[in-house]
Write a structure and sequence with these properties.
By secondary structure, the chain is of the alpha+beta class. It contains 18 helices and 56 strands. The chain has 4 domains: about 25-290, Beta-galactosidase, Chain A, domain 5 (Distorted Sandwich); about 295-320 and about 345-735, 2-Layer Sandwich (GH92 mannosidase fold); about 765-835, Immunoglobulin-like, CATH 2.60.40; about 850-995, Galactose-binding domain-like (Jelly Rolls, Sandwich). The relative contact order is 0.08. It holds the Pfam family Glyco_hydro_92.
């Protein structure tokens, strides 16, 4: 149902539709680090037809950045505000004059078919984009339907007008299969199959031209092919040639499909008739106006309205339809499926969008959100897992958590379910029990040891939240034991809270806090304890248990002081200069998602006025109507959804409990038109830039002092009215006025809460498990009042094993296993220490290490770093790794004299998200004289097709004989694979210790 407002025209008694699209500026976010695209799309459309000014680099994730002054063409798929690039499929570029088949460079556009342009000659509206191409004097205009991109090119008079069709072109991906075929005098069909962030993406297309071709040339390997009718390869292009009159228009329609040419053709026939560009443009505007009218604002200024409606617009550009009009689509198994009773979607940037974007959909687009969930469940059925970060039927594995869960659970708890709840629960449990990505440690140990999984703290707190959402469905479905299990897991974030520092921080396998600890230190590139952030950014993430978090900080006063301290820190992101940690107020980072809820936490501790002040500050300082108007990546709508909610006056701190925490509305009136036919109105009296504090409130005329509202209250319709003022008030401060958030409520503790005695594993006091002649082994445990038991024969220790009382001596390689048991009989898990008697450099002349690879200053373990008797950890930054890139690793060890050898081994770190790959081949040699070497082992590694678990792999070789020299040669993979974000770049090998036994 449309909620477009009608008003009487002054000229005649006919209704006039009020335009909301006039407030939308798609250029917002195309500067700075917003990463948005300005081109034409419709709500959740499969086509995003937009200009490409650059294809490589972080700020060109969407293909466009305001810093550019030339454009290479207009492609049909784009990512909205992501932190990585892909798409840019099926590029068209009108040109005049000499035929050029390469795009050329920004530094010299004349090298190729690029054209210079001026930003003053651009226009962007919802569903429309235009730009004047200075070099060709061509006006390029774009519009779109859901599955069809429509171009209109207005040419000058010329007998050498062209349209380049570039199927090689893509944004940070690699074309692997391309072809086109000419059908008649005005149609071209074809395929672009590529590998990038989406490892295997298919885009079939049908392109129809309003003007018959004069001629067509193909391009393959850079060579022109005259009179081409079909060209195949991995770099195929076409040149469509025309004679044009002055201001002659050529309209091109391009329909796309992930399924087939036939699917693309059906899409075109269903969505466009003829070549009426203006009709498609008008329909796009009407479609957008209807969607934007779901929320109507009154008051505020022009800038605030522009930011608001642009934010609402951005929030509805993703996810994207991913099926043809006949409901066929390519699934996660890359088989063709048919969506029965729902629309299939793709592009789920869930680490970002679970927080506010999907909760916003439950208000503005509940039908689409239900189909988003059905799409997730279909992906689960096809692949065995719910999407983590899915793109074009490819699971990228990007970011952390299993955040399909809160999206599904939010809809279920709000009663917006038109799907199989038991099937949904099956999928949720599968996600919760998946052993990958550190969940094996989280579920078995209660916490993720920092040395076993990168970003362990961030994963810990986000998994705890996701577990809470699973628990809510278990409760809903009467699964009592599961409800108990997952409710307790939801409290696991507490296991990493350190009372001494007041931070949630990293802990190792033996229970030791990571040192040194700096809460300002930002983790990057898959290393460290935090994901795109630091301890400040993750210290307040327990939306399922905010009251429990408050208690950890000593109560309301201590918690408020800690949040205050976050805002009062120095606003720097330390020397790493992390791209994503932006929009800083102290250590609050609006430019990245982990901070987004934190301002609203004041309400839980009885200080809503502090929320109100900070919310206004962020909206005023971090959002503008300029091209660089976003303080960080748009991230598929999350940055904008935050603003939409906050501008209306509330925000879903817990995205799945149906509560919205009240902030400070900026408009005098907001009306939400709900799909159930009800309206919910937010009214703010005496509201302006100075009157930002709530003095009092009524709901449907009845006074309320609660600093939150519920989704149910909104769905029922009505009006909430706020009295605003310039001074802080006591509204919402009382205990009974605050929102309450417990993972396990006090009333449920007796029945649900599991109190477990935590006994940590014993650790060794030895610096290393490698030794020259003898090793004196010491054992210790951080848990007080325990007894330690150990074995030396490889068996599992128990209370019947040898009790540890004092250090013991080893004189040969031995596997030491140990456990700790407290006075109540609670036992730790088993510790294993593989002591090896080996030859390594202790500062003497021999063993002598010679290397033939060039050291890297940043990753240099020292002169004898790979022969110093110490293993490196799983942390690439621990200073014990030698990093090698673009070259073979060769190391030779002279033992000084012949030695009896038994085994050789060498360790390599695999952390593919940080570009660290195992060697593709490693060979061990031995020699008696240092001249003639005998190969004893050669091992090869297959290039992975996914990001495996971060771990150290030790390659070993058996040796039986007396030798003086040992040599190892490791050959790296030459290029990062096509599925990797850094595809085509040079990977790294990280090696630690060459062990000679």
């Amino acid at each position: 149902m449309s909620h477009l407002n009608n008003v009487a025209s002054s000229a005649q008694d006919e209704p006039e539709i009020i335009s909301h699209t006039k407030y939308v500026d798609p250029f917002i976010g195309t500067g700075g680090h917003g990463h948005t695209f300005p081109g034409a799309t419709v709500p959740f459309g499969m086509v995003q037809l937009s200009p490409d000014t650059g294809v490589e680099g972080w700020d060109w994730s969407s293909g466009y950045h305001v810093s550019d002054s030339s454009v290479m063409g207009f492609s049909h798929t784009h990512l909205q505000g992501t932190g990585g690039g892909d798409y840019g499929d099926i590029l068209l570029m009108p040109t005049v004059g000499e035929i050029k088949t390469e795009p050329g460079s920004k530094a010299n556009p004349d090298e190729g078919y690029r054209s210079r342009f001026e930003h003053v000659n651009e226009q962007a509206d919802p569903g429309y984009y235009s730009v004047f191409l200075e070099d060709y004097k061509v006006l390029a205009e774009l519009t779109a339907t859901t599955r069809v991109g429509v171009h209109r090119y207005t040419f000058p008079e010329s007998d050498a007008s062209h349209i380049i069709l570039d199927l090689k072109h893509g944004i940070s991906d690699t074309a692997r299969e391309t072809w086109f075929q000419v059908n008649g005098d005005n149609e071209i069909v074809g395929l672009r199959r590529s590998s990038g962030w989406a490892r295997d993406q298919y885009i079939y297309f049908v392109a129809q031209f309003s003007k018959p071709f004069k001629s067509i040339q193909g391009v393959k390997g850079g060579e022109l092919i005259n009179n081409a009718t079909k060209v195949e390869g991995d770099d195929v292009k076409a040149v469509i040639n025309y004679d044009t009159k002055l201001d002659e228009e050529v309209v091109v329609k391009v329909a796309i499909s992930s399924v087939s040419i036939d699917g693309a053709r059906k899409n075109m026939e269903a969505e466009t008739q003829g070549f009426d560009f203006e009709a498609v443009k008008r329909q796009a505007d009407l479609t957008w106006n209807e969607k934007l009218s779901k929320i109507e604002v009154e008051g505020g200024d022009q800038v605030q309205r522009t930011i608001f409606y642009t934010s609402l617009y951005h929030s509805m550009t993703v996810p994207n339809v991913f099926m043809d009009v006949d409901h066929q689509y390519r699934g996660m198994d890359h088989k063709i499926h048919k969506a029965e009773g729902f629309t299939n979607y793709t592009l789920f940037s869930l680490w970002d969008t679970f927080r506010a974007t999907h909760p916003l959909f439950t208000l503005t687009s509940p039908k689409e959100n239900n189909d988003f969930i059905k799409s997730m469940l279909a992906k689960y059925e096809q692949s065995g897992q719910l999407p983590v970060w899915e793109l074009a039927a490819n699971e990228t594995g990007t970011m952390i958590g299993f955040h399909s869960a809160p999206v599904i659970v939010d809809a279920m708890l709000k009663g917006q379910t038109n799907f199989d709840e038991e099937k949904a629960y099956e999928a949720l449990v599968a996600a919760a029990e998946d052993p990958r990505r550190g969940l094996n440690w989280f579920n078995a140990e209660g916490y993720i040891p920092l040395e076993k999984e990168a970003n362990s703290v961030s994963k810990q707190v986000e998994y705890a939240y996701d577990m809470w959402t699973v628990a809510q469905v278990a409760k809903r479905l009467g699964k009592t034991e599961d409800y108990k299990k997952y409710s307790n897991r939801a409290l696991n974030y507490k296991l990493l809270f350190n009372e001494e520092t007041g931070f949630i921080r990293g802990k190792d396998l033996y229970g030791n806090w990571v040192t040194p600890f700096d809460p300002m230190n930002i983790s990057l590139l898959g290393a460290g304890e935090y994901t795109e952030g630091n301890a400040w950014h993750y210290n307040f993430f327990a939306p399922q248990d905010v009251n429990g978090l408050i208690e950890l900080h000593g109560g309301d006063a201590g918690f408020v002081a800690k949040v205050d301290e976050m805002f009062e820190q120095e606003a720097v992101n330390d020397n790493h200069m992390a791209h994503d940690v932006t929009g800083l107020i102290g250590q609050y980072a609006q430019g990245n998602e982990p901070s987004h809820h934190a301002i609203y936490l004041y309400n839980y501790a009885g200080q809503p006025s502090k929320t109100q002040a900070r919310i206004r500050q962020v909206m005023d300082e971090m959002y503008t109507a300029e091209r660089d108007g976003l303080s960080g990546n748009e991230d598929c709508g999350q940055m904008s959804a935050w603003y939409v909610f906050s501008a209306m006056g509330f925000y879903p701190v817990n995205p799945a409990n149906g509560e919205y925490i009240i902030g400070s509305p900026i408009f005098s009136k907001v009306t939400i038109h709900l799909d159930n036919g009800n309206d919910f109105v937010i009214e703010a009296k005496n509201n302006d830039i100075n009157n930002l504090y709530i003095q009092g409130a009524t709901l449907n005329g009845n006074p309320i002092d609660k600093s939150f509202i519920t989704h149910q209250q909104i769905e029922e319709g009505g009006k909430i009215t706020f009295e605003m003022g310039a001074s802080k008030s006591t509204w919402g401060e009382a205990k009974e006025s605050r929102p309450v958030s417990y993972a396990i409520t006090p009333a449920e503790e007796a029945e649900l809460l599991e109190v477990k005695e935590q006994v940590f594993r014993p650790a060794i006091t030895n610096k290393s498990v490698l030794f020259n002649s003898t090793a004196k082994v010491g054992l210790k445990c951080i848990t007080p009042e325990v007894k330690i038991y150990y074995t030396l024969d490889g068996s599992t220790p128990s209370a019947s094993s040898t009790e540890y009382n004092e250090a013991f001596t080893l004189d040969q390689s031995t596997m030491v296993k140990a456990i700790a048991i407290n006075e109540h009989g609670a036992s730790s898990k088993v510790s294993e220490f593989d002591f090896k008697k080996a030859y390594y450099n202790t500062g003497e002349e021999f063993p002598k290490l010679t290397i033939n690879y060039e050291k890297n200053a940043s990753y240099d373990a020292g002169d004898n770093g790979i022969l110093n008797g110490e293993y490196a950890s799983d942390n690439l930054r621990d200073g014990k790794w030698d990093g090698v890139s673009g070259q073979d690793l060769e190391a030779v060890v002279d033992l000084g004299k012949p030695k009896q050898l038994h085994q050789l081994s060498m360790g390599f770190l695999e952390n593919t998200s940080s570009w660290l790959f195992l060697p593709q081949k490693i060979t061990f040699y031995v020699s008696k004289d240092g001249k003639e070497f005998t190969e004893v082992s050669q091992q090869t590694v297959e290039m992975p097709n996914d990001h495996p678990v971060i771990c150290v792999t030790r390659f070993s070789a058996e040796v039986n004989g007396t030798y003086q020299y040992v040599k190892v040669v490791a050959e790296p993979f030459k290029k990062l694979p096509s599925w990797h974000l850094g595809a085509g770049n040079t990977p790294w090998m990280f090696t630690d210790e060459l062990v000679i036994e």
